[in-house]
Automatic annotation (TrEMBL):
This is DNA gyrase inhibitor YacG. The gene is yacG. Interacts with GyrB. Binds 1 zinc ion. Belongs to the DNA gyrase inhibitor YacG family. Its cofactor is Zn(2+). Coiled coil: none annotated. Keywords: Metal-binding, Zinc. Zn(2+) binds at C9, C12, C24, C28. Signal peptide: none annotated. PANTHER family: DNA GYRASE INHIBITOR YACG.
Length: 61
């Protein structure tokens, strides 16, 4: 059976660890999660239109 090529951590580029795949460590895994939770990752697309209730809430700021 052919050996799979070593994969790299998408966060830091080090070799991955089986227990944290596709990351190399718990730290890289947690940093990735924090980027998602803090909206650090975004998918490009057209701006979403606000409905009336969202527009009224934003006027109070």
């Amino acid at each position: 059976m052919p050996k799979k090529p070593d994969s790299k951590c998408p966060d830091c580029g080090k070799p991955t660890a089986p227990e944290y795949r596709p990351f190399c460590s718990r730290g890289c895994k947690d940093r990735d999660l924090l980027n998602w939770l803090d909206e650090g990752y975004r998918i490009p697309g057209p701006a979403a239109a606000l409905d009336n209730s969202e527009r009224d809430e934003n006027l109070g700021d």
